[in-house]
Design brief:
Distance between the termini: 31 Å
Number of helices: 6
Order of helices and strands: HHHHHH
Structural class: mainly alpha
Shape: globular
Number of strands: 0
Number of domains: 1
Length: 126
């Protein structure tokens, strides 16, 4: 993984897109997992599906089999269904998208959508 100093002043869509442009599919999934883990503690819902989505993505990183890809799809659906519109539920969305990244055929598009969705959701909640 590449190392980039991220701070409030340089975290924007253009920079993130540039930072991850050379990442492999696996690295993009690892990035999505990392982002989800940074915010998962904000999630206060009763469901454990967001954490299971992150775990499913981690399993896929270790063993990117078709079975694990399908498990990510299932975990994505469950975590996404859990999320609502509160600020804390951004964590559930992030977890869902981490699993989605692992299952996506087009990881570059998926990571882009994940970041854009997170930023847009976050702006709506501020």
């Amino acid at each position: 993984m590449k190392t980039v100093e991220i701070n409030v002043n340089n975290f924007n869509y253009s920079n993130v897109k540039s930072w991850i442009s050379s990442y492999t599919h696996k690295e993009k999934v690892e990035f999505a997992i990392h982002c989800a883990e940074l915010v998962i503690d904000l999630y206060v819902g009763a469901s454990d599906s967001p954490k299971k989505a992150i775990q499913a993505a981690k399993v896929w990183v270790l063993n990117p089999s078709e079975e694990n890809k399908n498990a990510c799809k299932d975990a994505t659906a469950a975590a996404y269904a859990t999320a609502s519109t509160t600020a804390a539920d951004v964590a559930a969305y992030a977890a869902a998208y981490a699993a989605y990244a692992a299952a996506a055929a087009d990881a570059k598009k998926c990571v882009k959508e994940t970041i854009v969705k997170y930023i847009l959701d976050r702006k709506e909640m501020i």
